């Protein structure tokens, strides 16, 4: 048991809540509002593109309001530790990379990728050695991205890691895209669950200039989430979006492409958002197309030389609007039928935040 827990153990060995507990990486209780603001736990999240953590490098990131250190060991495996030395809480990120461990600059304490203290040079053999005293997250690299399971409590068990369908399909070619926005993560989710904004905000884009500026929508439930879709238009614009709750939360959508956009099927987008803190978000997209053989190479060449810049322009339109919103923009609104998807995602996340806050407070289920 680490110093971050206040759980007792039953005679069966299972942890039992004993009053309030702290979320991993925090030093004080969190209520539902703070969880909703900084991000839900017990989920896999994309953290950084793999290319941004080079061999021998140590990279500090903030995710879900907590500072973390990413580093690759001598075998190339990525590790993710809370950016605090267990001795005096100095940031490990300003220390030294020692291959399979990092050494704190302050007093030389060495911590390996599991969060275990392997050496205390100032006092060899002290009780700190051998203890897993630093929070360490489960990490997977896939789709050119580093993913981590962010637990609610120290006894949370990571769920199996499963990529979104498009990214796991070998017949689908994809390009990753990463950006950081100065806006709450919930604004991103509201935006992607609002297909109608494509007919206005993106009206002059290369792929969403068609279709009506009025529509009717419906929610269609699935066994893994729901679709929010237009009932009177299909295959023209940003006509539908699927919200998926798997090992990670993501959105999936398609935008029809004209023949001059090159070979392949429809243009698909997988989108995810990882909270940095309550006011900043890490945005991950994979632009996809089902295409094979020589057409695959033709499509990838066309994307890099012509289409990628246009896609960035569309993304920048979203960023500019969402960063301009007031911090409480979603407090006083007059929603209408087009906003059913927005209302649904907010209810889902509000319920999740309350449930996780109850776990931390030690309230029985």
How would you characterize this protein structure?
- The protein has 365 residues and is α+β, with helices and mostly antiparallel strands.
- The chain has a single domain (1-84, 134-365), classed as Alpha-Beta Complex (Naphthalene 1,2-dioxygenase Alpha Subunit, Chain A, domain 1), CATH 3.90.380.10.
- Helices cover 20% and strands 30% of the residues.
- The chain has 5 helices and 19 strands.
- A 7-stranded antiparallel β-sheet has the order 13-19-18-17-16-15-14.
- A hairpin with a 2-residue loop joins strand 4 (58-63) and strand 5 (66-72).
- The longest helix has 32 residues, at 293-324.
- The model is unreliable at 1-17 (pLDDT under 50).
Please outline the helices and strands.
Layout: E1 8-9, E2 15-16, H1 32-38, E3 43-49, E4 58-63, E5 66-72, E6 78-82, E7 96-97, E8 101-103, E9 110-112, E10 117-119, E11 136-142, E12 145-150, H2 165-168, E13 172-181, H3 185-192, E14 217-222, E15 225-230, E16 240-245, E17 249-255, E18 267-277, E19 280-290, H4 293-324, H5 340-360
Count of DSSP H/I helices: 5
Tell me, briefly, the overall form.
Answer: globular
Assign a percent range to the helix content.
10-25%
CATH topology: Naphthalene 1,2-dioxygenase Alpha Subunit, Chain A, domain 1
CATH architecture: Alpha-Beta Complex
Structural class by SSE content: alpha+beta
* Strands in their spatial order, largest beta sheet: 13-19-18-17-16-15-14
Instruction: List unreliable stretches of 5+ residues.
Output: 1-17
Terminal-residue CA separation: 23 Å
Strand tally, please?
19
Domains, number: 1
Order of helices and strands: EEHEEEEEEEEEEHEHEEEEEEHH
Strand content: 25-35%
CATH superfamily: Naphthalene 1,2-dioxygenase Alpha Subunit, Chain A, domain 1
Tell me the Rg in angstroms.
Answer: 22 Å
């Amino acid at each position: 048991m680490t110093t971050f827990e206040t759980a007792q153990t039953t005679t069966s060995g299972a942890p039992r809540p004993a009053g309030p507990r702290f979320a991993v990486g925090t030093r004080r209780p969190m209520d539902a509002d703070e969880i909703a603001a900084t991000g839900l736990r017990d989920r896999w999240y994309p953290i950084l593109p793999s290319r941004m953590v080079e061999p021998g490098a140590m990279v500090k990131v903030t995710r879900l309001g907590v500072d973390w250190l990413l580093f690759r060991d001598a075998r190339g495996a990525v590790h993710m530790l809370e950016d605090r030395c267990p001795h005096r809480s100095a940031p490990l990120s300003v220390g030294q990379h020692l291959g399979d461990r990092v050494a704190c600059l302050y007093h030389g304490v060495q911590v390996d990728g599991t969060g275990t203290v392997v050496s205390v040079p100032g006092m060899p053999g002290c009780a700190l050695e051998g203890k897993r005293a630093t929070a360490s997250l489960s990490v997977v690299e896939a789709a050119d991205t580093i993913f981590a399971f962010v637990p609610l409590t120290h006894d949370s068990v990571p769920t199996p890691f499963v990529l979104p369908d498009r990214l796991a399909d070998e017949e689908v070619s994809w390009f990753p895209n990463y950006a950081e926005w100065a806006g709450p993560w919930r604004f991103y989710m509201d935006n992607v669950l609002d297909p109608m904004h494509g007919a206005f905000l993106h009206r002059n884009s290369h792929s969403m200039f068609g279709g009506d500026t009025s529509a009717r929508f419906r929610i269609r439930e699935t066994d893994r989430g729901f679709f929010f879709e237009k009932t009177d238009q299909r295959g023209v614009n940003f006509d539908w979006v699927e919200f998926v709750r798997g090992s990670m939360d993501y959105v999936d959508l398609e935008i029809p492409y004209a023949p001059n956009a090159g070979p392949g099927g429809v243009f698909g987008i997988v989108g995810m958002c990882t909270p940095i803190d309550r006011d900043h978000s890490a945005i991950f997209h994979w632009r996809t197309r089902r295409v094979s053989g020589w057409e695959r190479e033709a499509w990838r060449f066309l994307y890099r030389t012509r289409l990628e810049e246009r896609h960035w322009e569309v993304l920048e339109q979203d960023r500019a609007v969402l960063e301009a919103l007031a911090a409480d923009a979603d407090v006083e609104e007059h929603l209408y039928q087009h906003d059913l998807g927005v209302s649904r995602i907010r209810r889902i996340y509000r319920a999740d935040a309350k449930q996780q806050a109850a776990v931390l407070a030690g309230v029985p289920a």
